């Protein structure tokens, strides 16, 4: 949308020819900003309208991006939006971002980078993130970071796999209080079915790549979760704590859900 097109849209709203809701829909794709490197070659096209369409700005996937590219992307996004999330960020990339956005915070375990200026709670209730073992924490903490930057109250319950089921049962009160539960597990991933059978809330299962040879890099966990007998369990991709956190945040925003 050009500047003249935007002026015409605003004039239409003022005259009553276009409703505010219709204008928001038309603005949802505006503006897109292309970033170029020192030689003028484009390397990113930022979708600034995503907040209007989806309720949260474009999330940056940090893996394989150079520190310079990631820093430039985060700098431009943070100039337009109060809260920013980048995933799979290396320490070198974090230092580059920190130079242009000193308020950025980075969790070395999950590799999630967050800028959070808006602390408003948009979620209607609690999101509980449960992980089977300490080695599942990277994906679990990625989910926590995602939920929190999107404005949700979260509780992390760590190392409660089914090899010691009493550890999970000690958190039953929190699990039954939660509006949405994220369950992170590798190996045979039976924890998702156990949690699903104990609660009425939706359970988003995250298979992890944790395990010995027959775990097949998380494929065994993925198939186990997909075959869960608990009907309230749904599954995201291997090690995808971000995807689980994002969907949990959207569910938690729904009034009366």
Q: How would you describe this structure to a colleague?
A:
This protein has 257 residues and is α/β, with parallel strands linked by helices. 40% of the residues lie in helices and 20% in strands. The protein is built from eleven helices and eleven strands. It has helices at residues 3-15, 20-27, 50-54, 67-80, 91-100, 137-149, 165-169, 172-177, 191-198, 219-226, 241-253, and strands at residues 32-36, 42-47, 60-61, 83-87, 105-107, 112-116, 126-131, 153-157, 180-185, 203-207, 233-235. The strands form three sheets. A five-stranded parallel beta sheet has the order 8-7-9-10-11, with helices on both faces. Strands 3-4-6-5 form a four-stranded mixed beta sheet, with helices on both faces. It starts with a helix and ends with a helix.
């Amino acid at each position: 949308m050009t500047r003249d097109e935007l002026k015409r849209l605003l004039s239409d709203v003022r005259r009553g020819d276009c409703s505010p809701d219709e204008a928001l829909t038309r603005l949802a794709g505006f503006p897109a900003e292309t970033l170029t490197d020192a030689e003028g070659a484009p390397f990113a096209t930022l979708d600034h309208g995503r907040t209007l369409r989806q309720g949260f700005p474009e999330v940056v996937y940090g893996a394989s991006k150079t520190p310079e590219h990631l820093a430039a992307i985060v700098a431009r996004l943070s100039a337009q939006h109060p809260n920013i999330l980048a995933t799979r960020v290396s320490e070198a990339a974090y230092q580059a971002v920190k130079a242009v956005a000193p308020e950025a915070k980075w969790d070395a375990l999950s590799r999630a980078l967050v800028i959070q200026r808006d602390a408003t709670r948009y979620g209607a209730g609690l999101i509980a993130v449960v992980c089977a073992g300490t080695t599942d924490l990277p994906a679990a903490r990625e989910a926590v970071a995602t939920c929190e930057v999107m404005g949700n109250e979260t509780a992390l319950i760590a190392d409660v796999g089914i090899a010691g089921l009493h550890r999970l049962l000690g958190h039953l009160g929190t699990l039954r209080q939660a509006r949405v539960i994220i369950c992170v597990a590798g190996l045979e991933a039976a924890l998702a079915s156990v949690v699903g059978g104990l609660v009425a809330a939706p359970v988003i299962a995250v298979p992890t790549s944790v395990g010995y040879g027959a775990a097949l890099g998380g494929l065994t966990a993925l198939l186990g979760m997909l075959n869960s007998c608990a009907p309230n369990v749904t599954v995201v991709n291997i090690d995808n704590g971000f995807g689980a956190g994002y969907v949990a945040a959207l569910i938690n925003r729904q009034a009366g859900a």
